Amino acid sequence: MSHPTRRGRARAATEQDIRRTARKLLVEQGPEAVTLRAIARELGITAPALYRYYESRDDLVENLRLDVCADLADDLAEEIAELPDDGMLQLFAICKGFRRWALTHTKEFTLVFASPTGGVGSAAGSALSRVDEPFGRIFLAAAGRVLARTDIVLPSASSVPDELRDDFTTFQESLSAVLSESDHDVPVEKLDLGVTYLMIQFWARLYGHVTLEVFGNYPIPMSKPDVLFEAMLIDLAREIGLYSG
């Protein structure tokens, strides 16, 4: 096994310092504050020196986005590890944990989930748009447990609009790859286009609700947003046959 050289270790440490500083600027001031010039000033180096570590601001922000996604996934994985091995219970714990994280990490949420450009011209996008990334994996693995172990109401493939079939076929392939690597056997017949359509609709409802709450964009004053969120989750569970109350 090869070991990193002293130079390699020093480079890795500097990269971590750069990303740590970028995260600090993000949390304190927002995505627009994450610039190479600001980071260089914080570290006491010149901005051009940063190009030895990151090709551009976009490259740095993408790495920062991945760090945030990984931390979120780790937090959620730790939380559900303490729960019974129940797919539905874990899936809805992830939904609640995602909302809680979003409300307490609004700047990071904005970078990763709420801006298709990461704030200032980066290529960052929704963490679930890349299902093989940490957050996408943990969310879809929990959904896979539900598919494998629970009788739910699955929409037929014919329910997918013809104009969307190519998009959902691509997502279906990515979803199958992720779930095949999990420790739960998901029957092939449950991974048709109807299932992918259901998952995207589920995510859209969850993401839309959380985004409205984070940015205070409810159309009416909401005195008890926790109750509204719980009601939304119950509605989702009822629609797919997981809740009959």
CATH architecture of the largest domain: Orthogonal Bundle
Report the CATH C-level class of the largest domain: Mainly Alpha
Percentage of residues assigned to helices: 55-70%
How far the N terminus sits from the C terminus, by CA atoms, comes to 57 Å
Number of helices: 9
CATH superfamily of the largest domain: Tetracycline Repressor, domain 2
Shape: globular
The sequence of SSEs as H and E is HHHHHHHHH
| Class per helix and strand makeup | mainly alpha
Computed over alpha carbons, the radius of gyration is 20 Å
Proportion of residues in β-strands? under 5%
Could you characterize what this model shows?
The termini are far apart. Helix 1 crosses helix 2 (36-43). Helix content is 61%, strand content 0%. The chain contains nine helices and no strands. By secondary structure, it is an all-alpha fold. It has two domains: 1-54, Arc Repressor Mutant, subunit A; 57-240, Tetracycline Repressor, domain 2 (Orthogonal Bundle). The model is unreliable at 117-127 (pLDDT under 50).
List keywords for this structure.
245 residues, mainly alpha, Arc Repressor Mutant, subunit A, Tetracycline Repressor, domain 2, 2 domains, 9 helices
Structure described in brief:
The chain has 245 residues and is mainly α.
Helix and strand arrangement:
Layout: H1 6-29, H2 36-43, H3 57-80, H4 87-104, H5 106-112, H6 134-149, H7 165-180, H8 193-214, H9 225-239
